[in-house]
């Protein structure tokens, strides 16, 4: 399926003659393939009506539109779409008890969307952004994801989440020892900063605090989004061993990580996410760690 996709940042409707709308053959024949959105003041292209002819791409003076080829077979696998012509994610990584599942992919390809869904922070709309379904678990009936999704959105799965944005912790008016117990302070060699405010410690120390705080929770599933950022190699190894120990306690663990060496050590399997940055992301079936990393490196 070929559809036109708008890059909103490049679109300047007040500086053009709205050529995309004026020259679209579908609009000329009377339908609403491209309409101006009253709220944003920018055009919205209907995926259902657009035939991907590419005329708008050539007519737009700001190169704000391009044509995207969407694989037809993935139409049925759409897990979430943020809106008309907005980012969409196909399929989800599968959490496993007693295993560390890694997620690998470039920025803007849906890694955070995937873990936001799996952690219950974002309810998937299965592509129906304008009329989201109530019972999303039905969609996974008969698959290994069904139990997980139905229990998650029934509130029966306890989640611990280490965010990618550890620097936000610096705004919290608390000390390191408010979040980290004595045992972890020794293990991560944080004795010298235990009494310092979070706003007074380094990014690496904030990362350690965030990891330890997430690990200290009594949860069924643990998410670590970029746990090795800001850490030197010694602490990366230490952190990886600690995260692995959660899986040894039969917990589910999901890790988004860009350091391939850390991921190689840490994960039992990997889901790659590929696609087009900011447009769509497709989650692969789980792969062995080495195979997944090699596939990622080969593009
Ligand atoms: S997409 Fe191009 S032609 Fe259409 S409104 Fe935006 S800038 Fe103008
Ligand atoms: S690709 Fe063709 S049909 Fe689709 S919006 Fe552009 S001009 Fe219209």
Q: Report strand order across the widest sheet.
A: 5-6-12-11-7-10-9-8
In CATH, what is the class of the largest domain?
Alpha Beta
Chain-averaged pLDDT: 89
- Could you say what the CATH topology of the largest domain is called? Rossmann fold
Question: How many domains comprise the coordinates?
Answer: 2
Tally of alpha and pi helices? 11
Helix percent band: 25-40%
Distance between the termini: 23 Å
Q: Globular, elongated, flat, extended or rod-shaped: what is the shape?
A: elongated
Order of helices and strands: EHHEEHEEEEHHEHHHEHEHEEH
| Level-2 CATH architecture of the largest domain | 3-Layer(aba) Sandwich
| Global Rg | 22 Å
Strand proportion, as a percent range, falls in 15-25%
What's the short story on this structure?
With 299 residues, the protein is α/β, with parallel strands linked by helices.
Explained architecture:
The protein is an alpha/beta fold and 299 residues long. The protein folds into 2 domains: 2-69, Alpha-Beta Plaits; 84-158 and 218-297, P-loop containing nucleotide triphosphate hydrolases (Rossmann fold, 3-Layer(aba) Sandwich), CATH 3.40.50. Helix content is 28%, strand content 18%. It has helices at 19-23, 25-28, 55-59, 111-118, 146-153, 176-179, 182-187, 203-215, 233-248, 260-266, 289-297, and strands at 2-6, 34-36, 43-45, 65-69, 78-81, 88-90, 100-104, 159-162, 221-225, 252-256, 269-276, 280-283. The longest helix is centred in the C-terminal third of the chain and has 16 residues, at 233-248. It is elongated, with a radius of gyration of 22 Å. The two termini are 23 Å apart. The protein binds iron/sulfur cluster (2 copies).
